[in-house]
Amino acid sequence: MVNIEDIKKSLYSSLQELGLGEAESLLYMTSLALGPTTIADLATHLGMARPNVYKVIEQLEKHGLAKFTDRPKFVRTFVVEAPTKLLELVRQKRDAMAGLNHALVAVMPDLLAAFHQGETPTNVRIMQGKEQYLKVFFSMLDEAKDEIQFFGSAADFIGFVSWAEERTWIKERMRRGIRMRSLLLPSADTETLKKDDQQEMRETRVMNSAAPFVTSFQLFANKVLIWQPKASLAILVEDEYIVQMLRSIFEMMWGASAL
């Protein structure tokens, strides 16, 4: 059975969600417990001066949670709206926020384009050797949000970074809740990765019909990391249009590749 303290906490959280301050929330809960009462009695229970009580009531009225009785002014009492009204207002706010969230998600590509275009210069970093590559390889986990995409040769990539580093990176990626989609050339390393897809938050598809190549790229945030193993060379590019092109290529090849 829910106790009175749990009820109060739930009520207080709902009032806070509507944007009410400490004083407004306290007045609402006090008035709810007292029922219709005079401002003088309410001020006494709250330990607050009557003019300040009126100011707090004004805020509750703006939120649609307070009203006075229809009696003459000198005998009228104050009462807050029932919790059902509070629930209705909370639901309305959540629905409005959900609608705003969906609308924002829908226009996010256009917003990002407007933000970057003409304002953020293209950044290109060239890294030589395994040590520099591993540094950026792990740092991408700080910038990636929901997902990283990998395209290329797992055998050449893991042959360069080593399975030990790859396993360490996978564990950290999983700890951060970042999923992975890998589009790989056929190899023994590809099969090793694929069999562990489910427990490693990854989906792997194989490009069985692609001609062999040794390079790879990884897409994350608004960047792409391109790796050329023959020269131990990595290129990190931050450019909206290049990343957009490579994402389009990745998605096209993803749809055409076997599970």
Describe this structure in a few short sentences.
It contains 10 helices and 9 strands.
Overall form: elongated
Query: How many beta-strand segments?
Result: 9
Helix-strand makeup class: alpha+beta
SS strand fraction: 15-25%
The tally of domains stands at 2
Mean pLDDT: 82
N- to C-terminal separation? 50 Å
Spell out the CATH superfamily of the largest domain. Answer: Endonuclease Chain A
H/E series: HHHHEEHEHEHHEHEEEEH
The total count of helices amounts to 10
Strand order, biggest sheet? Answer: 3-9-8-7-4-5-6
User: What fold name goes in the CATH topology slot of the largest domain?
Assistant: Endonuclease, Chain A
Please name the CATH architecture of the largest domain: 2-Layer Sandwich
- Give helix % range: 40-55%
Report the radius of gyration as a whole number of Å: 30 Å
Q: Which residue ranges are poorly predicted, with pLDDT under 50 across at least 5 consecutive positions?
A: 115-119
What's the CATH class label of the largest domain? Alpha Beta
Biggest sheet statistics: 7 strands, mixed
Please describe the topology of this protein.
Layout: H1 4-17, H2 22-34, H3 39-46, H4 50-62, E1 66-68, E2 78-80, H5 83-116, E3 123-128, H6 130-143, E4 147-152, H7 154-161, H8 163-175, E5 179-184, H9 188-195, E6 202-206, E7 216-220, E8 223-228, E9 233-238, H10 240-256
Parallel strand pairs: 4-5, 5-6
Antiparallel strand pairs: 1-2, 3-9, 4-7, 7-8, 8-9
Helix pairs in contact: 1-2, 1-5, 2-4, 6-8
